[in-house]
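Hi R.,

Here's the chain you asked about this morning:
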Amino acid sequence: MSEKKENTSTKNRMHNPSAGMMGMGMGRGGGAKNIGRAVEKPKNFWGTTFRLLKYMNRRLVAIIFVWFLAVTSVLVQIRTPKILGQATTEIFSGVLVGAKALKSGHPIKTLPINFDKIWQILVVVILMYLVSAVLNFMQQIIMTRVSQRTVSQLRREMEQKMNRVPIEYFDTHINGDILSRAINDMDNIAGTLQQNLTQLISAIVTFVGVLWMMFSISWQLTLVALLTVPLSLVVVTLVAPRSQKYFMGQQSSLGLLNNQVEETYAGHVVVKSFGHEKADLASFEVENEKLYKYGWKASFISTMIIPLMNFVQNLDYVFVAVYGGIMVANGNVSIGNVQAFLQYTNQFTQPITQMANLINVIQSTIASAERVFDVLDEQEMDNSPSGIPPVKNCGDKVTFDHVQFGYGETLLMTDFNLHVKPGQMVAIVGPTGAGKTTLINLLERFYDVKGGSIKYEGVDTRDISRHELRSKISMVLQDTWLFTGSIYDNIKYGREEATKEQIIEAAKAAHVDDFVRMLPQGYDTVLNEEASNISQGQRQLITIARAFLANPEVLILDEATSSVDTRTEIMIQRAMETLLKNRTSFVVAHRLSTIRDANNIIVMNHGEIVETGNHEALMAKHGFYADLYNSQFVEE
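And here is the predicted structure, written out as tokens:
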């Protein structure tokens, strides 16, 4: 039972070349590292920020051009209030001239206002706003491309990293959290690079440009406007950091929730069979409540900045309006300039508010980037050579030479030795936890030995690339893995360059052709995500056909016929006699009746070989194997 459970992680890494074509999970000590972990702040905020920006170096020309567009757009935009103020001054001057004329007793039909000049000013303002809008539009187009290219590179590196990390990484990290980093965190980074980066540039340029324009109108009014800046900074520095830890917790909790939903959905049949709907729903509610609390606190604290900054902005507006009115009354400044200054006052506090909001967004983004970089910085598979010279004229196909191995500090195998000749069928039997699956994992280099050597045709497997080694080996697991696609494509997965005739021949050898011909779409039948539109036995047959098509030098069968009926099992055994001829094979078996014809039966217990021999010889010993066989026979 535990052997079957040990292989459930296989389905989640079958696409991963580093895990081998048919990767396997095993009984191991460590649990998932990320379960229940404490919320933490980014470990290196500025380091992560600069590292993220380095990914944009290849598109530096485009980014510089975007900055140029942003600066130009802002400069054009901040000029408009002062130009528009000239129209107000022109109107106000005409009204004053008219009022003086009426006061002196000279009747007038119309106010002496130069509407031609006003129209010219309005046309210029409209054109400037139009130019600013076009420049902003161009910014967004370019930054969209830059951000998507950057995140695409990050995604590509993460996918490649998944192919280089050891199997242990998948065994110790939950799938939902990995998916959350690859999807949610990547989307978060993309959104910030696409929108918020240009906003940050615009906010900085706006702040500096508006401050310059304000000084050009009146340094006294500018000093009045600057009185509220310290208050704005207090709002930003007090509120923004408090939301940072909640944004980090939100991303982490989202990954855990994704994993929980994925596991429950994937095992919905088992969940319903054991009546665990309420328990799983309760677990979901607990994690969902955590996500709600993190999200609510992060959003609430970050949105507090807006009303607080609006309050500061209104104070600024009141001070400037009152003092500006006094200055107009004293003739120290024109009314048009005061109107322009009031507009600048609104624009002056706006970038501060934007930067305050962007701080929260950036905090969330850096938290996401750090989670992605944590994956990219994971230790990769060790490709160091063994330093063990190859054995010339070795008569073994596979040799386990004084192998030591354990998943943790405790060694499961202390001195394991095994010699397998070419063409031999080696059966591996033993109680649950004896180390049967471990032996296969070591052969495939899903894990490397901690002592001794495993040789393939006399060469240590550490001196053979994993891709080359696994191309010589094909494996059929107890737990089937099929992807969403046609039956034809699922069989072809074993050897992509195979012809249609070879695929059909492999299907016939595995007795897949018999039931496929009865389906309405035949080999074009599309399997759904869980391949639930065919039976478990049929799924098993397809994986066997895939192994047939691969035509490997070494074939590994891990209880490969466990899900087929007795009649089909007999047919497959007969077909395998031809397939296994002159081919080395390892058969992990629980039903000992299926391996009577093996050339050599390896009986394992606690990671060691306790007996070897063929079926008749082992039964004659009346030892460990005989007890296993007889007890199973009695149970059957």
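One quick note: The chain has 21 helices and twelve strands.

Cheers,
M.
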